[in-house]
Design the sequence.
């Protein structure tokens, strides 16, 4: 081929090429338009850069069309093993993710995680504490339920006091029935004058009797100069009469044990049971100690004060002072207090005097076989008792004007009534 033939062939190939470049000064082939020295498709509105299309670039780099996925997914079943939270590829050069706040190992609060040699994430700068299950929170080294734990109620630092329970994350009073919560206190609506029958029902000058505001009643204090460690028929009858002043059936009786022996407590119970059985009266008994006296006295009809061996007159008087308010309220509800005396213990009259329930003076001993006189035959305690009888055992007594039975002016059985406070 001669030189002219070569030149003609070169011009023909360049002029018929499929590229966008057009020879300067030449016309574009059919379907292309000349613009800025280039032959372009008529529908194109932008000039493509020399970098080519994103798809072509991705093909050249070997990157799949999924955004942020690097390399071939054949070794990664999920196809996203190397994808960061920001959609970008994970930087293999920074396994602890310290250069990216959006890395897969970044916590919500910005703290960072590293991996140990086994590939397990471990905390980088603080101790996460125990891993607690659903509904439990970490408090120190323990997992607790903040909605119900009385030591961590609502938060780790709040502990409920004695008598409170944690309910829905709040410390609330818990009252044993029949007490209820009124004004942040446990009250008995059967006897509470400010919450009679329910919270906020104030009886004013009246008192609360069995949940109803009623006028006060007359209270009774009876002293019996015997402890029934030995039988004494006439005094047993009077003891039963004293307990039956209240008409409830069954009768609710509280017995204060204190330092009394179980034997003496049982003897008092037997004497009372035998006297009530004669008239067909039922009764229930509760034992009160020094503390429960002020809590439970208003739930009974009769209180029996047994002799207290080993306690001094001062100790007994102090007990009475402690119980003074409870005794007064008991009296206003028509309560009956029966104090028993024993030669082997200090006078129980000290308790009554300490509570402000009378003055009895010095206690005296009445020898056995002494003739006793019924000096107040109309008294309710004297029912079915003869006008005179002899003591079968040694007895104790006081010189008191309220005597029902006496021996030469010393009252062996004393019955004193207590009128309620007047408005």
Sequence:
């Amino acid at each position: 081929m001669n030189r002219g033939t070569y030149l003609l062939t070169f011009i023909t190939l360049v002029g018929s090429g499929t590229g966008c470049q057009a020879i300067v000064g030449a016309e574009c082939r059919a379907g292309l338009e000349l613009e800025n020295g280039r032959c372009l498709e008529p529908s194109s509105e932008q000039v493509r850069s020399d970098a080519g299309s994103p798809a072509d670039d991705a093909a050249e780099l070997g990157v799949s069309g999924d955004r942020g996925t690097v390399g071939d997914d054949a070794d990664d079943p999920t196809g996203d093993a190397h994808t960061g939270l920001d959609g970008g590829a994970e930087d293999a050069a920074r396994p602890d993710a310290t250069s990216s706040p959006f890395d897969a190992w970044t916590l919500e609060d910005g703290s960072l995680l590293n991996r140990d040699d086994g590939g397990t994430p471990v905390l980088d700068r603080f101790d996460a504490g125990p891993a607690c299950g659903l509904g439990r929170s970490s408090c120190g080294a323990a997992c607790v339920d903040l909605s119900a734990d009385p030591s961590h109620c609502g938060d780790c630092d709040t502990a409920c006091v004695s008598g409170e329970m944690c309910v829905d994350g709040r410390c609330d009073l818990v009252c044993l029935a029949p007490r209820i919560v009124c004004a942040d206190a446990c009250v008995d609506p059967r006897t509470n004058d400010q919450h009679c029958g329910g919270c906020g029902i104030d009886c004013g000058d009246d008192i609360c009797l069995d949940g109803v505001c009623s006028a006060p009643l007359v209270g009774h204090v009876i002293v019996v100069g015997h402890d029934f460690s030995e039988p004494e028929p006439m005094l047993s009858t009077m003891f039963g009469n004293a307990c039956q002043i209240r008409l409830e059936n069954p009768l609710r009786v509280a017995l204060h044990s204190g330092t009394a022996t179980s034997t003496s407590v049982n003897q008092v119970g037997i004497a009372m049971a035998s006297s009530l059985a004669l008239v067909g009266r039922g009764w229930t008994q509760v034992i009160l100690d020094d503390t429960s006296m002020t809590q439970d006295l208003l739930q009974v009809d009769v209180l029996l004060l047994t002799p207290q061996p080993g306690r001094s007159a001062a100790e007994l008087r102090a007990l009475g002072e402690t119980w003074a308010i409870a005794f007064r309220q008991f009296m206003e509800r028509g309560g009956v207090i029966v104090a028993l005396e024993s030669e082997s213990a200090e006078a129980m009259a000290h308790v009554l005097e300490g509570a402000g329930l009378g003055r009895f003076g010095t206690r005296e001993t009445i020898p056995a076989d002494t003739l006793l006189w019924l000096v107040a035959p109309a008294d309710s305690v004297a029912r079915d008792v003869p006008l005179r009888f002899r003591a079968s055992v040694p007895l104790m007594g006081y010189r008191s004007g309220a005597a029902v039975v006496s021996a030469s002016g010393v009252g062996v059985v004393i019955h004193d009534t207590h009128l309620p406070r007047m408005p």
